[in-house]
Amino acid sequence: MNFTTIEYLKKGNPTQQKAYKTLQKVKVFSYLRAYQPLLVGTIPLKINTLKSDLDIILYTTDVVALAEKIKHLFGQHKNFKLNIKDPMQHILVCTFVCDAFEIEIYSQNIPTRQQYGFLHLLKEYEILQIMPPSFKQKVIALKNLGIKTEPAFAQLLNLEGNPYQALLAYQHNKNITT
């Protein structure tokens, strides 16, 4: 699966197809192309719930310029909020609503293919390919109970410690039956 583009959403499940149309409509990926945008989170993996948003990660070395650009491009959207969380790390979080989706844009001074959001997406995809379909349903059930994605995976895989780190270090054990 190539998660470096959103083209796969066009032929995905109904939620993915709607997400593709929304992302095309709002033009996040074309307007912010210079920032290496990637879609991460649950919708690409088909483990989304009704509360899932469209998570887009960006890379920037100038968070102030990015904030101005985002305000200009998306500031008119419903529930628009933008916050520079850490200017030294160029961390910015922006949310707004378009169509039926909340869109969350997250930037930092790390190339997007090296950010945890993308690395978790790849690891979760790998695990979902190995595990039986019931595993995916259990992840969704835990998410519906309010448990975040990585802790849900960690719980089902019996991983100890920090679930975000443990998930990245996970190596499949054929003896696990979930």
Overview of the structural elements:
Helices cover 40% and strands 19% of the residues. It has 178 residues and is α+β, with helices and mostly antiparallel strands. It has two domains: 7-112, Beta Polymerase, domain 2 (2-Layer Sandwich), CATH 3.30.460.10; 118-169, no CATH class. The protein has a five-stranded mixed beta sheet with strand order 1-2-5-4-3, with helices on both faces. The two termini are 24 Å apart.
Provide a compact summary of the structure:
40% of the residues lie in helices and 19% in strands. The chain has helices at 14-26, 28-31, 63-74, 116-130, 133-144, 149-156, 163-169; strands at 38-40, 54-59, 78-86, 91-98, 101-108.
Write the layout of secondary structure elements.
Layout: H1 14-26, H2 28-31, E1 38-40, E2 54-59, H3 63-74, E3 78-86, E4 91-98, E5 101-108, H4 116-130, H5 133-144, H6 149-156, H7 163-169
Parallel strand pairs: 2-5
Antiparallel strand pairs: 1-2, 3-4, 4-5
**Total helical segments:** 7
> Helical residue percent?
25-40%
Strand order of the largest sheet: 1-2-5-4-3
Supply the CATH architecture of the largest domain: 2-Layer Sandwich
State the shape.
globular
Count of domain modules: 2
Q: Roughly what fraction of the amino acids lie in strands?
A: 15-25%
For the residues shown, what is the average pLDDT? 94
Features:
single chain; 178 residues; alpha+beta; Beta Polymerase, domain 2; 2 domains; 7 helices
